[in-house]
Write a structure and sequence with these properties.
By secondary structure, the chain is an alpha+beta fold. The chain has 13 helices and 14 strands. The longest helix is centred in the middle third of the chain and has 21 residues. The N and C termini lie far apart (49 Å).
């Protein structure tokens, strides 16, 4: 039987303890909630998201909470998933992963603004975090969707060496967002903050839709209404991706059930926003957002595409959603990571996000570096890359497809 609590070697001033999610859930909740009250964090580290994630995972999936205590008070904590696989079909690999499982089918939840919870002013870096793992054996440490402040504080961006470990930057992606205070400062004329081309596209599309009556935005008011809207969003999303010959993100049954449960459990806490944009004659689109600490995070959409290039359901849906949230006291409308053109064209600002891996062992690191270099070269061969993506999409649902 797994011990509910494991005392680990101390690291500096931190006394390190690990808790297993299956045997001591109440202690995990107490520690995590106590740190949330004192730490800056985004929705993907909130107790609403984390508790739903922990409860959603099969008992066979290993996830532990690593906690650093100072004088019996939690000062730093993070979840650590552990998995084993044969990488590239041949190489036995033990993987650990920050606040994720390291298993693709479960991690398609696509965590962003990932970080370690820690008290303000607490000094730490990646070597000290690795020291908290004791003698745990691993080959790769996955660090997906890292927030820029955490990546900087952990020393992952300054090129400093971590002893016996290689640092691989797999992806740096901008997270585009709209500063809603700028919309309010413009007297709600959000379009004046955009380029003339984007203003023209949105105005033409709005005019076309309004031939069937005024465009209206409806926000779900109850859990039942939110779940109904989510079901329609999923249908629209999946229909469009199947037309494109791809399975769509909600083809993953685990992910679909996770979000149903998240909406059911967190809507009444004000963390879930389901929006419908429509005319009296037709649906334009549905948006699924998270709302946390006056920040709106756009997670997924279901859009109704009509023939012709005048109808732009994604642009119009986001336009009305941004105005809706600007009328509230929310401060940010965040499109989250991804370089889709609509995100940059609708945003007022951006910040970087990082997907990184730590590789233990010089020969493994050298091999991974060669593979990353090969991927970079293949970017100049889009036809070959598309064939690879088609094969991958047939084997597994896409990570987080963007539709606009």
């Amino acid at each position: 039987m797994t011990e509910p609590m494991t005392e680990m070697p101390s690291v500096g001033d931190l006394r390190v303890v690990e808790y297993d999610r299956k045997t001591d859930p109440s202690q995990i909740e107490q520690v995590w909630r106590s740190l949330l009250e004192r730490c800056e964090h985004d929705y993907f580290l909130s107790w609403g998201w984390i508790s739903n994630w922990l409860n959603s995972l099969p008992q066979t999936v290993e996830v532990r909470l690593v906690v650093g205590y100072i004088q019996d008070q939690p000062a730093l904590a993070f979840f650590l998933g552990a998995s084993r696989r044969r990488k590239y079909g041949i190489l036995p690999t033990r993987t650990i992963s920050l606040n994720t499982t390291g298993i693709r089918s479960f991690d398609q939840l696509y965590i962003e603004y990932n970080a370690v919870l820690h008290l303000p002013g607490l000094q730490f870096d990646m070597p000290s975090l690795l020291g908290m793992l004791g003698g745990r054996g691993w080959h790769e440490f996955g660090l997906p969707g890292l927030s820029a402040p955490f990546a900087k504080q952990a020393g992952l961006l300054d090129g400093k060496n971590i002893p016996h470990v290689g640092v691989l930057l797999e992806e740096e992606s901008p997270s585009f967002y709209v500063d809603l205070q700028k919309v309010r400062a413009a007297h709600m004329d959000y379009l004046q903050l955009l380029s003339s081309n984007k203003r023209s596209q949105i105005r033409r599309s709005v005019k076309e839709y309004q031939k069937d009556g005024e465009i209206q935005l409806e926000a779900a008011q109850t859990v039942a209404q939110a779940l109904d809207m989510f079901a329609i969003l999923v249908d629209l999303h999946q229909q469009e991706w199947r037309k494109r010959g791809k399975p769509g993100v909600f083809a993953n049954p685990y992910l679909l059930e996770f979000h149903r449960n998240l909406i059911a459990s967190r809507f009444e806490s004000g963390e879930i926003q389901l929006l419908k944009v429509s005319t009296p004659a037709a649906t334009i689109g549905y948006l699924y957002n998270f709302v946390y600490h006056r920040k709106v995070l756009f997670y997924q959409s279901g859009l109704n595409y009509l023939p012709g290039n005048l109808y732009r359901p994604g642009l119009v849906s986001h336009y009305y959603a941004i105005l809706h949230n600007a009328h509230s006291d929310n401060q940010i409308y965040d499109f989250m990571a991804g370089e889709a053109g609509y995100k940059s064209s609708l945003a007022t600002d951006s910040q970087p996000m990082y997907w990184m891996r730590l590789i233990k062992g010089s020969w493994r690191c050298a091999a991974e570096m060669r593979i990353l270099c090969l991927k970079e070269r293949l970017k100049n061969n889009p036809a070959f890359l598309e064939r690879i993506k088609q094969v991958r999409d047939r084997l597994s649902p896409s990570s987080k497809p963007d539709l606009v």
